[in-house]
């Protein structure tokens, strides 16, 4: 009896010819050749936009030969055009997995898959096929371009830059899209002047690149050229009035310019009709106008939308497991047996800790104003060394980081911390983050709190500065943001509170088990008296004869035309203390606002000594 | 049994249930409690109490279990109820006395202790419990007198002898105290401290070289404190063999006169006599006026001192006075509850602007550092300390150690390093009474509780002493 059940993946093929096909029973090359004329016909139909006919023929061919490449390609294109991304991905993966007659075909299949995933924002998932494409066709500019996108958007900006530049070289000409992507990469690195120059080249070639215009505007704003940024966006918005990204960026410029009513006007309409980032911007404008209840309603709508419309959930399981595993391994007794990296001259890292919205970006901006300090902006996280640590240590199959570190206690593992440390410093140098005058480099990688154990082994005496802020202010501030956070903890206030608790308990564990050179600083002190806080930090680090910026300079927190600044400098604002203890006004206006999170946070509020703060 | 329902006698049985004798269940609860299976014991007691809520003995047992689980208020409520229900059972006030002591309610403890003796005047343990309370209240003569009553009833009651010794020694009556102190090896917890041998204890008479076995018998602090008498013993019985734990070797090996150090009984070789280090003060006739080497008798390794000096220079902020800190002792110590503090209790010290705190704490309690966000910078050095040699070297690089009564205090004292020791109202006997110095260590200053269990003013005084 014929099994006519369709495959659950949605490809339109029968299950036994799709995801459950017997790979050993597929037709061989000679047999497939018989179907080539039909496959050409399907391709022709597709090119003639006769999509239904093309689909029907492709389904028939694939029912006979599930590995017929051209038919698969046609079906993939049809599903992609239908925006059926799940089946499209299945078909793209199948295309990438079947042997091809030549590397060009294989490359095309890998790129197709990578681009499909990049289009969905799944850059991490796209990495294997992007890498495969580069290896198959290292002289193909397109493979390097896609690799550049994947690396840039997964935080490997320096490697990304390298691939963009190779792509430009291989193309032998300026390409508006590649140049704009390179400029965005440079913007992320904080190389704003270079980024501006390249954006100008890119937009001269492709003036219709709206994303490029948006990126350029952000660079201009970051260079303290707000009027120019606004002019760029005004022109673009009038040309493409339906482009929501441009409209949002324009509204954000208004927000930066403290034109709150203008933000609300630009992003008006029913809340459900707005997207979460638009809601976040409107909510912030409303908040600045002092309309607390309405601001909370807007922020809560955005979060609800993230959860219900986009299916985002707080997913702590992986991190709870990680916490358990790390706490079990990184104990005082275990660490006593492990070697430390040998002392090293040269640039010294200064690690910054702080839950999102605690003020660690602000601290990095202020520290960057001190001669001799450079900001790595978390682009070379110590976490990136865990794979190398695994490779250097993995003498026994089946062990993983951090358990593999136990091998360092054995004689031939003694120099591994030094090798890892040297690699890290080399990465910083290669990325151009270390200049000849750099003595200290700040590292505010978002996952530093997980890696204090490794940091202790590699940089035993590195200063660790922890920016603390009232936990309710942190939760409140994250409520007004539309940023992807670890474990998706930004999707609700309770998720933020739970993840704050997990993060703080991890830091607490490390502080108890390791001899760290740890300094807590308060966000509230940083915004009210930055000079005193910086003096304390400089003294703690032991910088001799540090020339600190003056009080007015710190307070204005202005952009400085240096070759590199932290990427977050584009949101740099004058220092203000209006956000310190903001939760009080909110709790007064909405007494139940924190009722769910207080039981989670009250212990931390007391431990941090905030309960009696006036 | 633990899986079955406990029924009151009136309740009809359901299928699968059976009636059990209450005495059997009570025995079961006691057995679980004695096996330290406290959660199971508590669970069973709760189920029994659901059926017989007014049963005095179950209430009493449940109270003991709750006390051991740290639920002091609930424990006291249950035990007071059991006494109210059965006011003539002597066991209840006898145990209540000890629970009140643990809760710091010393007046109530005395009343309970006296009531227990009234109900059972022949019960030596009732006297012993009351003697402990008098020690806690620093009523030392009364403590000795009550111990004597207990010993009249039971002359081999080792705990009572030892308590008597502690009261005498604390009161400064050393000669008599040392005699009673010899009973310490009959205590249950002293098992295994001495070698299994038919050789006699050393009587202080000359022996050939290498024929005296010295045993580092008690806690680390005691061994360091009494180790000063090794040179005295070595003058009479040259090159003695010292048996001690590996943890102590870095310290004790520096004391002159030792022939050989061993860490296992089978390595001691032949010896003619043995003596625990804690037995040396009695033989040497030590009292508060003739303690030798009180200025210090141990010198840390200079290379290690230099190593830690450089380390501290790198780790600590400049321009601050370095104060080392220990706030918790070994949890298995019999008086640990009395002496161990929380890091946060040192708040007046930690609020100072002019110091950096270097914690040399070891053990599980170092985890408290994770919750410290106080004013003074604090560096948790404990995790990097491998042994006492490191501790000594670190202490040589600080201005002062502030500590509870634990082994590190003795390390500092033996090295002649300034140290401030915070002491409970009724301290260990060695710190004597009514003085802020100690004949054992010239560099040590004592900060005593003015009232039992109240640390607040002690902490204020210690912090102010740095002015």
| Interface with most residues | A-B, 25 and 22 residues
Structural class of chain B: alpha/beta
CATH class of the largest domain in chain B: Mainly Alpha
Strand content of chain A: under 5%
Radius of gyration of chain A: 27 Å
Mean pLDDT metric of chain A: 90
- The neighbouring-strand order within the major sheet of chain A is 2-3-1-4-5
Q: Which stretches of chain B are poorly predicted, pLDDT < 50 over at least 5 residues?
A: none
Give me the number of helical elements of chain A.
Answer: 29
Q: What is the CATH T-level topology of the largest domain in chain B? A: Serine Threonine Protein Phosphatase 5, Tetratricopeptide repeat
Across the major sheet of chain B, the strand order is: 7-6-5-8-9-10
User: From the structure provided, what is the oligomeric state, counting identical versus distinct chains?
Assistant: heterodimer
Task: State the end-to-end distance of chain B.
Answer: 64 Å
How many helical stretches of chain B?
20
Largest sheet report of chain B: 6 strands, parallel
Which of globular, elongated, flat, extended, rod-shaped describes the shape of chain B? Answer: globular
Rg of chain B is: 25 Å
For this structure, the CATH topology of the domain at 317-573 in chain A is Rossmann fold
Known CATH architecture of the largest domain in chain B: Alpha Horseshoe
Gap from first CA to last CA of chain A: 79 Å
Number of strands of chain A: 5
């Amino acid at each position: 009896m014929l099994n006519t059940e369709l495959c659950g993946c949605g490809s339109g093929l029968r299950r036994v010819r799709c995801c459950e096909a017997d790979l050993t029973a597929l037709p061989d090359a000679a047999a497939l050749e018989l179907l080539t004329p039909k496959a050409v016909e399907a391709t022709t139909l597709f090119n003639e936009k006769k999509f239904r006919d093309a689909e029907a023929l492709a389904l028939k061919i694939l029912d006979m030969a599930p590995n017929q490449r051209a038919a698969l390609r046609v079906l993939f294109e049809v599903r992609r055009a239908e925006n059926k991304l799940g089946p499209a991905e299945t078909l793209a993966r199948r295309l990438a997995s079947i042997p091809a007659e030549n590397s060009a075909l294989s490359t095309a299949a890998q790129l197709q898959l990578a681009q499909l995933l990049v289009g969905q924002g799944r850059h991490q998932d796209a990495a294997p096929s992007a890498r495969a494409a580069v290896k198959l066709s290292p002289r193909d500019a397109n493979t390097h371009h896609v690799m550049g996108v994947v690396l840039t958007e997964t935080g490997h900006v320096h490697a990304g830059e390298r691939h963009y530049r190779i792509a430009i070289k291989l193309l032998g000409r300026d390409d508006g899209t590649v140049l704009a992507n390179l400029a965005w990469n440079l913007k992320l690195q904080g190389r704003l002047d270079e980024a501006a120059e390249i954006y100008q080249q890119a937009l001269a070639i492709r003036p219709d690149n709206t994303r490029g215009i948006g990126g350029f505007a952000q660079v201009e704003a970051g260079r303290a050229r707000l009027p120019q940024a606004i002019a760029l966006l005004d022109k673009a918005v009038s040309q493409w009035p339906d482009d929501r990204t441009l409209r949002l960026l324009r509204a954000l410029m208004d927000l930066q310019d403290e034109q709150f009513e203008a933000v609300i006007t630009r992003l008006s309409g029913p809340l459900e009709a707005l997207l979460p980032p638009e809601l976040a911007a409107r909510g912030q404008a409303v908040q600045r106008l002092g309309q607390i209840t309405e601001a909370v309603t807007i922020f809560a709508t955005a979060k609800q939308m993230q959860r219900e419309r986009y299916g985002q959930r707080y997913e702590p399981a992986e991190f709870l497991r990680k916490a358990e595993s790390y706490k079990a391994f990184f104990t005082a007794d275990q660490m006593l047996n492990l070697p430390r990296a040998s002392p090293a001259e040269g640039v010294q890292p200064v690690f910054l800790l702080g839950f999102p919205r605690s003020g660690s970006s602000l601290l990095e901006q202020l520290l960057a104003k001190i001669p001799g300090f450079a900001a790595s902006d978390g682009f070379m996280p110590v976490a990136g060394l865990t794979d190398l640590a695994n490779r250097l240590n993995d003498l026994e199959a089946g062990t993983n980081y951090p358990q593999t570190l136990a091998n360092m206690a054995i004689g031939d593992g003694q120099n591994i911390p030094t090798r890892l440390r040297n690699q890290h410093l080399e990465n910083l140098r290669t990325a151009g983050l270390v200049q000849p005058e750099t003595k200290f480099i700040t590292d505010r990688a978002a996952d530093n709190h997980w890696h204090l154990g490794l940091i202790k082994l590699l940089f035993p005496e590195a200063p660790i500065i922890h920016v603390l802020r009232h936990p309710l202010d942190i939760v409140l501030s994250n409520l007004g943001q539309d940023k992807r956070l670890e474990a998706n903890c930004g999707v609700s206030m309770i998720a933020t509170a739970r993840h704050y608790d997990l993060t703080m308990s991890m830091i607490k564990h490390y502080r108890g088990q390791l001899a760290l050179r740890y300094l807590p600083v308060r966000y509230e002190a940083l915004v009210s008296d930055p000079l005193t806080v910086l003096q304390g930090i400089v003294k703690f680090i032991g910088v001799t004869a540090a020339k600190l910026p003056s009080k007015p300079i710190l307070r204005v927190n202005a952009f400085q035309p240096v070759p590199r600044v932290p990427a977050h400098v584009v949101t740099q604002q004058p220092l203000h203390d209006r956000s310190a203890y903001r939760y009080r006004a909110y709790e007064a206006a909405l007494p139940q606002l924190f009722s769910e999170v207080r039981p989670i946070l009250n212990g931390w509020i007391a431990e941090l000594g905030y309960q009696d703060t006036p | 049994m633990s899986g079955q329902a406990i029924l009151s006698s009136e309740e009809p049985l359901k299928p699968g249930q059976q009636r059990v004798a209450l005495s059997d269940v009570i025995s079961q609860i006691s057995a679980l409690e004695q096996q330290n299976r406290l959660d199971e014991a508590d669970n069973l007691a709760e189920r029994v109490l659901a059926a017989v809520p007014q049963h005095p003995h179950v209430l009493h047992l449940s109270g003991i279990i709750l006390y051991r689980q740290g639920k002091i208020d609930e424990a006291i409520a249950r035990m007071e109820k059991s006494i109210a229900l059965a006011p003539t059972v002597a066991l209840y006030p006898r145990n209540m006395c000890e629970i009140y002591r643990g809760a710091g309610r010393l007046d109530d403890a005395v009343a309970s202790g006296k009531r227990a003796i009234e109900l059972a005047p022949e019960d030596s343990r009732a006297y012993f419990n009351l003697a402990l309370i008098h020690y806690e209240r620093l009523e030392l003569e009364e403590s000795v007198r009550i111990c004597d009553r207990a010993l009249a009833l039971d002359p081999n009651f080792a705990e009572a002898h030892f308590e008597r010794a502690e009261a005498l020694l604390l009161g400064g009556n050393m000669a008599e105290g040392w005699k009673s102190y010899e009973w310490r090896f009959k205590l249950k917890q002293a098992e295994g401290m001495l070698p299994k041998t038919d050789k006699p204890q050393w009587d202080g008479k000359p022996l050939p070289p290498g024929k005296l076995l010295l045993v580092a018998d008690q806690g680390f602090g005691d061994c360091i404190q009494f180790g000063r008498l090794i040179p005295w013993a070595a003058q009479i019985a040259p090159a003695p063999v010292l048996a001690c734990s590996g943890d102590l070797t870095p310290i004790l090996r520096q004391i002159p006169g030792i022939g050989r150090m061993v860490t296992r009984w089978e390595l001691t070789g032949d010896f003619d006599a043995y003596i625990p280090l804690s037995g040396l003060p009695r033989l040497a006739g030590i009292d508060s006026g003739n303690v030798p080497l009180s200025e210090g008798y141990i010198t840390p390794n200079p290379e290690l001192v230099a190593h830690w000096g450089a380390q501290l220079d790198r780790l600590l902020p400049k321009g601050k006075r370095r104060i080392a800190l220990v706030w918790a002792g070994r949890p298995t110590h019999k008086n640990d509850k009395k002496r161990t503090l929380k890091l946060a209790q040192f708040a007046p010290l930690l609020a100072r602007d002019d110091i950096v705190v270097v914690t040399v704490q070891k053990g599980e309690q170092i985890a408290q550092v994770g919750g410290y966000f106080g004013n003074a910078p604090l560096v948790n050095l404990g995790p990097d300390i491998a042994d006492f040699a490191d501790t000594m070297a670190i202490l040589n690089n600080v201005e002062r150690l502030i500590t509870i009564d634990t082994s590190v205090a003795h390390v500092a004292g033996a090295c002649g390093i300034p140290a401030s020791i915070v002491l409970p109202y009724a301290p260990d006997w060695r710190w004597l009474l009514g003085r802020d110095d100690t004949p054992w260590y010239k560099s040590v200053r004592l900060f005593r509780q003015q009232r039992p269990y109240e640390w607040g003013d002690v902490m204020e005084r210690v912090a102010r002493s740095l002015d």
